[in-house]
Design goal:
Elements lengths: L20 H9 L5 E2 L12 H15 L13 H15 L8 E4 L1 H13 L5 E4 L5 H7 L5 E4 L7 H6 E6 L13 H14 L2 E5 L15 H7 L9 E6 L11 E4 L2 H15 L4 H12 L2 H27 L4 E2 L8 E6 L6 H10 L2 E2 L1 E2 L12 E5 L5 H20 L11
Helix pairs in contact: 2-10, 4-5, 4-9, 11-13, 12-13
Bound molecules: pyridoxal-5'-phosphate.
Pyridoxal-5'-phosphate (PLP) binds next to helix 4.
């Protein structure tokens, strides 16, 4: 028997329901001939390499071997304390290191939340469309989903759910900024239902049109006294305010939830890298992340505007969108339901431009009428070229579908 036809056990069932779309995007990101408007990556040329070099030297000088150990599963103690102090200052709440777990990016926090809260068939009430990484992280646990309704969420459904999941600041994929009254209303319902609320906030620093207002965590703080013990499980990260490569993120939650997550984390990786947490600590302590974010935001604003003005000229016969007040994405919805963005994607690849079709952000897989377009990774010139290619892809796609002609009037 040759090795190639040897029988082996099958992979677990959940893998069959998974998709390789994230890997595909990362691959396109590396191809020079493709304009990738698909990924969710910051601009690499803006990474503060020198500052990270200097912080690395200082972190090793200050912490020595402690920065190179396995370390505590909960994370590098000085950084846990610093995050607790920042959250206290931002929300007016009472947070200590016991409320903080450091993770390998907020992606790991999502995975740990799945491990700790989801049994097969459990219900999640999720903001829809939903961040693909969260759907991926929870897929092995086979949850059921209901869409979160910011205006009229049914409390009974929340009471059946293990948690609600939301990205209120410049959501991925839609770029939506959820208004304050809706945040407060959702929190009221979460409290009435007696469930958890996962507030995922990776885009906080990407404020293109001014500050986003209070987090749902801050609303929860206003309703409690004493050490924080509320239902909001808040996720932060340095991936957008510094660089994704440090893989430093954090969970801020009730101490009891932090203990459960730490137990889950121990079996995942013993601990995240003390080394990169020590480097991040040095930079956050100096508030470098805040200064850096201020310096890069104008670049991203220009790129967003290049995308939206280019698209207004070339794509607006077929798509509509709102200009996002922050984040990294423009969510373009087709005006004509006969346009299927899974199909359009294939024509786009022929034209050497990539976007993300909406189906991957839909837990039912049925929304095929929109696309997520990234504006942070490429220069305005490259973005404009990407829009031209997208325009050509739409023209070819539409002319191959007789039911789509004639063009809708503007
Ligand atoms: C909504 C959301 N959550 C979490 C993450 C993961 O971020 P991190 O790099 O901190 O793992 C991302 C990444 O883009 C995201 O968009």
């Amino acid at each position: 028997m040759t090795t190639s036809n040897r029988r082996r056990p099958e992979t677990a069932q959940w893998l069959k329901a998974s998709n390789s779309i994230t890997q595909q995007f990362l691959a396109f990101g590396g191809r020079a001939d493709v304009v990738s408007l698909a990924g969710g990556l910051p601009a690499a040329e803006l990474y503060p390499i020198e500052a990270i070099q200097e912080a690395t030297g200082r972190a090793l000088e200050t912490h020595g071997a402690a920065a190179l150990e396995y370390g505590a599963v909960e994370g590098f103690p000085p950084l846990r304390r610093l995050i607790a102090e920042r959250m206290a200052a931002e929300t007016g709440g009472s947070f200590t290191a016991a409320n903080v777990l450091l993770t390998s990016g907020s992606m790991q926090a999502l995975d740990l939340i799945g491990k700790v809260l989801i049994d097969p068939g459990d219900l999640i009430v999720a903001q829809a469309p939903t961040y693909l990484g969260a759907l991926d992280a929870w897929r092995p646990r086979r949850p059921a989903y209901l869409p979160l309704d910011w205006q009229a969420q049914d409390v009974e459904a929340l009471a059946r759910a293990k948690f609600a999941y939301a990205v209120p600041n410049y959501s991925n994929p839609t770029g939506v900024l959820v208004p304050q009254d809706r945040r407060a209303a959702l929190l009221d319902k979460v409290l009435a239902a007696g469930t958890w609320l996962v507030e995922d906030d990776p885009y906080l620093s990407m404020q293109l049109d001014g500050p986003p207002g209070r987090s749902i965590l801050a609303h929860a703080v206003a309703r409690t006294r004493g050490p924080y013990d509320g239902p909001v499980i808040y996720l932060g990260t340095v991936s957008k305010s510094l660089v994704p490569g440090l893989r430093v993120g954090w969970v801020v939650a009730a101490a009891e939830m932090i203990q459960s997550l730490a137990l889950a984390k121990q079996a995942t990786d013993l601990s995240s890298s003390m080394f990169t947490q020590a480097v991040a600590h040095d930079l956050l302590e100096r508030e470098f992340d805040r200064r850096h974010s201020e310096s890069i935001v104008p670049v991203y604003r220009e790129r967003r505007d290049a995308l939206c003005s280019g698209a207004a000229l070339r794509l607006s016969d077929w798509f509509e969108w709102e200009v996002p007040p922050g984040g990294m994405f423009v969510w373009m919805r087709s005006k004509n339901r006969a346009i299927d963005t899974d199909e359009l994607y294939k024509f786009a690849i022929e034209e050497k431009v990539a976007f993300v079709p909406s189906s991957v952000f839909d837990f039912t897989g049925e929304d095929r009428f929109a696309m997520r377009v990234n504006f942070t990774r490429s220069s305005p010139e490259v973005i404009r070229e990407g829009v031209r290619r997208l325009g050509r892809a739409i023209d070819t796609y539409v002319s191959s579908r007789p039911q789509l002609a004639p063009r809708p009037s503007r």
